[in-house]
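PT: before anyone asks, these are the final sequences, not the draft ones from last week. 96 residues across everything. Please model them as a single complex and drop the result in this thread when it's through.
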Amino acid sequence: MVIRLYIRKLIVLGHQIAGKVDKVGDRVGLTWLYGSCSSCEHCLNGLENYCLDIVRTGWDLDGRYAEYEVAHEDYEVPLNGIPLKTEDLAPLMRLA
Ligand SMILES: [Zn+2]
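LR: through. Structure below.
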């Protein structure tokens, strides 16, 4: 019997977040998707989650439970004008 152990480095957990862009003030949400190749068939058809080069927060990179987060503008969801508290919007980013 062969037992394979998959050892990962420790990472900060968390997938979705909502907050304000530092020094700009716009409210935005971020999904679990941090990035993808943007050029494969899946990416070009809006199916980045199937991209072989996908980068996921809380899995490939540190997650969203941090005071500050760096994100690609392409993966931001604008939240200005939505009449809900910012902290209530974060769980909804799983649907974005
Ligand atoms: Zn791709």
